[in-house]
Specification:
- This protein is α/β, with parallel strands linked by helices.
- It has 2 domains: 178 residues, 3-Layer(aba) Sandwich (Rossmann fold); 145 residues, N-(1-d-carboxylethyl)-l-norvaline Dehydrogenase, domain 2 (Orthogonal Bundle).
- It has 15 helices and 8 strands.
- It has an 8-stranded mixed β-sheet with strand order 3-2-1-4-5-6-7-8, sandwiched between helices.
- Helix 2 links the parallel strand 2 and strand 3.
- The N and C termini lie far apart (48 Å).
Length: 337
């Protein structure tokens, strides 16, 4: 059934998901706070800063005014950086009239509060102003979905009908959606894998090979699982699409800006220079800080995350950091310690 869906955030993933929805026959608005970018979308049907080779469907309407963008929308999809989720959702609370479904595809933890994205949305947008809240996440590079590479992701919600709504709205011959009721696990896996991706990129930048890549991904998954379970997630979620699936795709591809950032760190570049030159948000940098502080608060051991924190925020030599973590006391693997 044709729906009116508004996408908030015309970055690479937001633009690609808008394309998916348009190709599935829905009416799509794409809102952003950069007027020049919206003008480009409407005039040239391109978004060259994020997806230089994509021709955006002409029936996607770029919108500069948030109230206009969400008017009468059946669903609103947030794909804004984690740091913007609270402010954007707060604006929605004052203008939304018709109880749309709320979907988010952002990946991170809020700084200071350590809250997951859905927790932030729940705080700022009362339940009586929406039908349901769904997390859309999984192993998916926008660059590949945009050219119709086969991709599978998860729609997670405690409301099974809301999850099925998202499944039906997005699923097609190249994008398959599974439903899941473990919002905590899906959001935790989505956020924390970006930390491990920085580490994986750094390993490559330092010149290490596949053995090291397998080590950091496997032990990184153990850390993600430990913290996720401590937050209330179901352990099995981390062996699924939003756990090991998202970890694999983010830790092994040059499409991942977190991997690229780590790779440049491993090659000796300074973090601030990397951030300045990337031109896009590197979610793993801020998530590393939030996760390290949260793990300390919950008493969860996360040596890889802590090591990456030391490199990012304490200017620890990255080569020495790799040596130090290898020389930790011996552990029992199946205790996930």
């Amino acid at each position: 059934m044709k729906q009116k869906i508004t996408v908030l955030g015309p970055g690479s993933w937001g633009t690609t998901l808008a394309q998916v929805l348009s190709e599935n026959g829905h009416d799509v608005n794409l809102w952003g706070d950069n007027p020049a970018q919206i003008d480009e979308i409407n005039t040239y049907h391109t978004n060259r800063h994020y997806l230089p080779d994509l021709k955006i469907p002409e029936n996607i309407k770029g919108q500069k005014d948030l109230e206009t963008a969400v008017k009468d929308a059946d669903a609103i999809l947030l794909v804004v950086p984690t740091k913007a989720v609270r402010s954007v959702t707060k604006q929605l609370a004052s203008i939304v009239k018709n109880k749309p479904y709320i979907i988010h595809a952002s990946k991170g933890l809020e700084q200071g509060s350590y809250k997951r994205i859905s927790e932030v949305i729940n705080e700022e947008l009362p339940a009586e102003k929406r039908k349901g809240l769904v997390v859309l996440s999984g192993p998916s590079h926008a660059e590949e979905v945009a050219v119709h590479d086969i991709t599978t992701i998860t729609a997670a919600s405690p409301d099974s009908e809301a999850a099925k709504y998202v499944q039906q709205a997005f699923m097609n011959k190249y994008l398959r959606i599974y439903t899941n009721n473990d919002v905590v696990g899906v959001e935790t896996g989505a956020a924390l894998k970006n930390i491990i991706a920085i580490g994986s990129g750094a390993i490559a930048g330092l010149g290490f090979g596949d053995n090291a890549k397998a080590a950091i991904m496997t032990r990184g998954l153990a850390e993600i699982s430990r913290l996720g379970v401590a937050m209330g997630a179901q352990p099995l979620t981390f062996s699924g699409l939003s756990g090991v699936g998202d970890l694999i795709v983010t830790c092994t591809s040059v499409h991942s800006r977190n991997w690229r950032a780590g790779n440049m760190l491993g090659k000796g570049q300074k973090l601030q220079d990397i951030v300045d030159n990337m031109g896009m948000v590197i979610e793993g940098v801020s998530t590393t800080k939030a996760a390290t502080e949260l793990a300390e608060h919950l008493g969860v051991e996360m040596p890889i995350t802590e090591t990456i924190y030391q490199v990012l925020y304490e200017d620890k030599d990255i080569d020495q950091a790799a040596k130090d973590i290898m020389m930790r006391d011996g552990k029992v693997e199946n205790e996930f310690s």
